[in-house]
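Figure-free illustration: sequence to structure, shown twice.
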Amino acid sequence: MKKSLSLGLSLALLATTAIPAFAHEDHKDYHVRNAMSDKHKQIESVEFSSMKAPSTVEDMVKTYSNASVKIKYKDGSVKETPLKYNQLFLSKDKIVKNKGEMIPAGTPIDANGDPIVDKSVPDKPSYFISDAPDSNSMITIGGKTYLISHYEYDSMNNAGQSVYGLPASMTLTQVDRNKKTGELTVNNAKKIDFSNVNGLWTPCNGSTTDWGTHLGSEEYEPDARAFEDPTSSSYKDVTSFAQYYFHDKSKANPYFYGWIPEISVDKKGDASVVKHYSTGRFSHEVMQVMPDEKTALFGDDGGNTMMFMYVADKKKDFSAGTLYAAKFNQTSKENGGAGDLKWMKLGHATDDEIKAIIDKGTKFSDIFDTASKPTAGYTAVKTNSSKDVEYLKVKPGMEKAAAFLESRRYGAILGATSEFNKMEGVAVNKKDKKAYVAISYENGSMEKQDGSVQDDIQLPARESGATFQLNLGDGQNDKNGNKIDSGYVPASMNGLIVGEDLSAPDAYGNTANPDKIANPDNLSFSDDLNTLFIGEDSALHTNNFVWAYNVKTKKLSRILSVPVGAEATGLRADDDVKDSRYILSNFQHPGEDLDGKQITAVDKKKLEDAMKKGLGIQQTGGVGYISGLPSGKIAPSQQWAHDDHNEK
C-alpha cells in the first residue's frame, strides 16, 4: 500500500479581481456553471491532493491523473477539482500537412522538406516516426496559440534495430482553445524547417522565453576528435545523418551540431530558426534564461559534464555574449551534497564569429595538440566528450575555437569542474532568486575518482539522483577577479529533493522508493504557486511520474503517471494562457526495458500484452497537458506577503 501524499499550497489573495477555477472538460456544464458562479470569489488557498502510484495493469499502461486541486475561497467555501491528463495527439498521428500530404507528427524531414524514409525492411518502406516527443513551448502570436514540440530521436527502425544518426525534428502545431472550458484541440500542424542550420541533432529539453520564442537544444554532441577516425561511431553517426538529411555524406561535420536553436513564430504562423553558436557547444539539455533576460544557465547531459553560464551583451539577444564554466568547491556530502561555485571565463564571441570558424572546415586537430600519456605542457582532462583521460594543449591562436567549439574540454583545461553526471532540467524561481537543476544520477563521475584527473566532486552514490537549488547573487567576480555583468550568478548549490535507492526490487519492479522522486529530469517552476514541477526519466521506477513540490511548505505530491517504461517529458507550467493554466506534459518510448523488470504484483505477461495491444512497445509517444488547475494570474505582492507571514 503506497502512502498518499498531500501538497498544501497556501496562497492567500487579497485580489481585487476575480480568479475563477478552471472548468474541467469532464462534466463540462456543471463546471462551467460553477466557474461562472465563482468568478467574483477571491482565492484564499490551493492544495494539491496526491494520487497513488498505479497498481493494476490497466493503470500501468496509460497516462493519467487521479490527483486533485482543492480551492478554498475567502468566503469560506471550498471546491475540489480533479486533475486530468488530456492527450492532444500521438507522434504517430497524421496531423502534419507536408507538401500536400498528411504525415505523422513525429516524422523527420530532410533538407528538401521531404519525409525521411525507413528502408530497413526493403519491401515495406515507410516514414520514420519518432517515439520520443520531448520539450513543449506554448506561444501566442497574433491572437493564435501555437505549440512547438521536440521529437528527440527514433528508438527502433521497422526491422527492430536501434537507429543511430537519424535527423531529428520539431513540429509547430496551432491549437484552438475552448473559451468556456479551456480545452485545447489541434487545428493544424507543420514541420519546422532546419535546413538553414544544417538540420537538427537530438533535441532534448527546451524553454520558452518571456519574449515569446522557443529555445531548443542539441544533446550528446558528436565527438569531433573521434570523428577524424573513420572507424569510430562518431564518424558513422555524423555521416549517416548527412546521408539521411543532405543525401550527401561529404557534408558531414560534427561541429554543425551541439548548439542552442532559437525558434520564432511570425504573425502568419511561420517558424524561423537560428542556432546560437556563441552560447557554446556541449550536450545541451536545456537553456534557461534568468529574469534579467540576458543571463542563461544550462543542463549538460551525460557523465563528466560541466555547469555553464552565458551572459548576453544585450537583453533578449543571444547572438553575442560571454561564456563561463563553474568550479565546484564541495562543502557537504549530506542530503545530496552542497558546494560553492566559482566561475571561469571561457571567452566572448558572436554567433557569426563561431559560424565562420565552423564554415571554413575547422577540425579538432586544428584546435588541439594531443599526447598519449602525461606530458609536460599538456593538461590531463576527463570529460563527456571522450571515455578516456585526454592530454591536451590548445594550439596558438585557437583559444576562441576551443572555448566555443570544445567548451567542455577547454573549460577542463582552465580548471572548471567536469564531474557532474546527468545534469538535466533547469528552472528559475524569479521571486526568491533561486534556480533549480536536476542531477538525474548521482554516481560515476560524481563519486571519488582514481586521482588521475581533477576530482572536485566526491559524493556518495545515489542512483535515484537529486534536485539541487542554486543560490543566485549579484556583484560576483570571475576567477580572474573581473566583475560578471549579471545579477543572477549561481554562488552555491545544495541538494533540495533527494531520491531513495532500494536494496532490492519491490513487487512492482521499482528499485527506488516510488513515493519519492527518482532520476529527476524535466523541471518547470510556477512563480505564483511557489511550485516546482518535476518529471522523471527513471529506469528505477517501473512507471515514471510528474511531481509538484512546494518550495515554501516543502511538501511533495504525485500528480501524473505515464505508461510503464515511458519517460515523462515536455514539462512546462503555463500560468497564464488566455486566462487558463496548463501543465504541458508528454511521454516517450513507452514499454522500454519492460522485459528486464522483476514484477510480481501483477501478471507481467498480461502487462506486456496490454502495452503491445495499446500504444505498442516503443512505437509512439504522446503530447498533451494536465488540466483542472485554478486559472488566473495571482498578484505577486499579495502572494509574497502571505508567504512572509507563513515563514514567521
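We now fold a second protein in the same way, so the two outputs can be compared directly.
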Amino acid sequence: MGKLKIIKTFIFTIIVITNAYSQQLFNIKWSSVINNPDNTWFATQNAKDVAENVLLYQRNIGGWPKNITMQIHLSEVEKQKLIALKPDTKEITTDNKATTQEMLFLSKIYRQVPDESYKKAFLSGLDYLLEAQYENGGWPQFYPLKKGYYTHITYNDDSMVNILNVLKEIVDKTDYFSIKPSEETVKRAKVAFDKGIDCIIKTQYKQNGVLTGWCAQHDEYTLAPAKARAYELPSLSGKESAQIVLLLMSIENPSKEIINAVHFAVAWFDKAKIKGLREERFYDEKGKINDKKMVSDANAPDIWARFMELDSNTPFFCDRDGIKKGSLAEIGEERRNGYSWYTNEPKEVLAKYEKWKEKHFIADTKTVIKQNKIVVKDDFNVIVAQDGSGDYTSIQEAINNSPAFPYRRVTITVKNGIYNEKVKIHEWNPNISLIGESKEKTIITYGDYFSKINLGRNSTFYTYTVLVEGADFVAQNLTIKNSSGQVGQAVALALNANRVLISNCIILGNQDTLYASGTNNKQYLKDCYIEGTVDFIFGQATMLFENCTLHSLKDSYITAASTPEGVKYGFVFKNCKLTADAKATEVYLGRPWRIYAKTVFINCEMGKHIKPEGWNDWSKPEVVKTAFYAEYNCSGEGYRPEKRVLWSHQLKKAQADKYTVENIMGLDFSNIIKEWNLKLK
C-alpha cells in the first residue's frame, strides 16, 4: 500500500509540473520549449499543438523562417495564411538557429509520438540543408539566396556549425535524432559534411602566414573575410571561432588538416585572450539592460573580443555608421547594449584541448621550443626571418624542409632582409608560395654568371639566383636579383615549371635576366618590374605579362623568344610600360632565339628608346616566314607602326581580342589566375 501511495504521489507531481509548464509555455523562449528536459512533455497535447504550428510554419522548400515563437496559439485565419504561404521561399534561413531547431523539436516529439507527418517534415528540413550548400562546402545565411551580405559563407551566430552538427549526428548514426533517414540520404549528408569541414579548413585565416581563427562571414567566391551589417566589419571572431573548433575537436579520426587547424586555433585563442577586464551590466526596473561598461578586474576570467583586427587581433567596436572605435564606451547606447561584443566561449575549447591534444599531438606539425614553451609548427605555413624570429633563417632551408608533393599549398612567408643565397624550388616541391613582406625590402640576391660557372656552352642555365622547377609556384612581394653586373649571361629568375604566378615582384639583372623554359609551360606575371640589357626576357615557355614595367639598361634587345614550332602563343605583353635609362636610345622589342619565336605587345606604352623598326631578325633570314612578331593599339614615342620591319604585324581588333587569359593560359590555369587576382584585390 505504501508503494502504491508513493507511485501515485510521483504521478501527481509529474502532472502538476507538466501543467505548470504548460501554463508557462507561452511566456518562455522557443528555444527553451525545445530544450525542455522533461521528455514526457513531448507526449502531451500541448506539445502536439506546438508541433502543428511547427508544421504550418515550414515552407514547401523544407526550411523555416527565423525568430518565430512557434508555441503561440494561432487562430484559424492565421493558420490559413500560413498554409497559403507554403510555396513562398522568401526569408527561409538557418540564421538564429532557424530550421535546425525546428528539426530538433520534431525529432523529440516523434520519439514520443511517432506521427509520420513529423518524420516527413524533419526529412524535408534535412533535404533543405543539403540543397542549400555551396559547391565549395559553405552555406549562405538564407536559401534561396537573398541579395546582399546574406550570400556570404556564414559562421555568424554559429549558423554553419549548427548545420554541420545536424549532419554529423546523421552521418555518425547516433540516437540524438529519433528520425532516421535513408542510406542514400546518409551518404549525401556524409559528402556535405566533408565538404563543409573542407570549407572550414580553407577559410581559417592566416595572419602573417600563421593560421589563426575564423571570421563571422567569408566571401562565397574568394573565401576572404567579408563584411555583413555596417557594424559587422571583416574581422577575426572569438565567438564564432570557438564553436568551429569544438566541432572540429568532436570529429573522430580527424585528418591532418583538421589537427593542424585545431592546434593553431588554440594557439591563437591563447594569444588573443583579454585578461583583467570584466563586463558590468546595468538593468532598468523591468530587468532590461540599459548600460554596459568594461571595468578593470585583476581576478576577472579571460574573455575574447567578438571583433578583432585581421592583422593584429586588436579588439574594435562599431556603431551603425561602420566607423571603428577602440572601446565599448565610444559607441552609442543602442549598439553598446544591444549586441554581444565580448565572449567567453573559447574557454570551453581550452578546457577540452588538453585531453584532445594527448590523442592528436601531432600530425603534420612539429613541436619546437620557444621561450620555454612548446609551440606547434605548421609544415604548410612557415616563416623565414634572418633575425631568428621565424621558423628558418634561410629560404632554401625552408624549401628543403617542405613536404614533398604536398597535398595542399605550402606558404613560405619571407620577412624583410637581404637573403644572399641561391634558391631552388625542386620538382618535388610543387604548390609552394614564396611571399615576401615587401618587394623593396625582401631581397633574394646572388652573383653567379657564365664565366664564373664555367661549365661549358650551357653555363648560362646554372647562373640563376632563383630556379623554379616545382609546378603551381607563386611568388609575391619579392626582389629577385642577379648581382653580378654586366659580365655576360647571368640569370636572376629561371622558370622551368608549369602554372607559375608571379605578382608585385622586382626582377633585376643585365643579360638574360628572366629565363622562361618548357615547351608546354604556362607562366603569368602581373604588376612586376623587370630590368636588364641583352635579351633580358628569353625562353620557350608561353608567358603572359600584365601591367609590368620592362626597363632597358642599355641599347639591346628586350626579348629573345624560342617558341617551339606549333605553339600558338609565345610571349604576350598586355598593358605594359617600356622604359629605359637615359643612355639606352636604341632598343629592339625582340629578336628570335629560335626561328619560330612569337612575341606580341598589346596596349603597351613604349618609350622613345624603342627603335622605329622594332624587331631584329638575328641574321636569320628565314624568320621573316617563321617568326610572329606583332603589336596592337600601343602608345608612346616608341610606337611607330609605320616604321616597323615589313615582316612584323599590326593586329586588327578582332585578332587582338583573341589574346585573352583563357586562350593564352588555357581554361584550367586561367580559372586559377582569376581566383588569384581576386585575392590580390
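Summary for the second example: Residues 439 and 477 are 4 Å apart (CA to CA).
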